[in-house]
Model the fold of this input.
Amino acid sequence: DFRKAKMVSEKGLNHAIQFGHKMTLAFNELQCANVLVLKGDGKNAIAHCQNSIEYSKDIGWVTILSQAWTILGYSHYLLGELDRAREFVGKGLRIQEDSYIEAMLSLHYWVLAMVLFDQGDLEEALRSSEKALELSLKNNERRYEGLSKIWIGKILGSKEKARYREGEQFILEGYQILKELKVRPAMAQGHFHFGELYKNSGDGFKAVEHLDKAKLMFEEMEMDYWTAKCQEVWKGL
Done:
């Protein structure tokens, strides 16, 4: 429910602005950005990330600072600005690794894997996804376990790798975790990545089946960025 999420996150931010408490401001700015990037809206997330970075710097809140840099990178990734995305995710990752705090470190490696994949560096993307999975298992971060498995599956199921059965199994395992957690946006993305994999393997029937499911869910949640991605994959089917 992105409309409600946006309303609640903005309400929290308005309270933080009213009281001027920098820790609350840093956190709420990041939460506003998180809602937007989950929906696929990188453009409107950027300012919130930049604000969170400034507040976090002022008070030395390393955990939120590192996440804000990486979500800023994610925002630029959604806009197709891959060099800037890699630069900012790299900053977030370095800050968190230097802090020796492992909680949520899987987030950075997961986003980095997406950027690397779109830059065509599949080997590094796979290593980054596997690192995200390793950390998520170590730190009991189930959501990132599911997301990492889906991206490992996406990479293995690409035409360049052509390891379709392995890719299918990883996506299935990741999808089941996200279904258990009831994370519907990520579940829809799971169907989308199934569609990509089946298109790559030449199974047009299964590709259409999953892309249909993904598109319906994206439309219900008004995830326009992802709806457009579905339409791109449909070409040639």
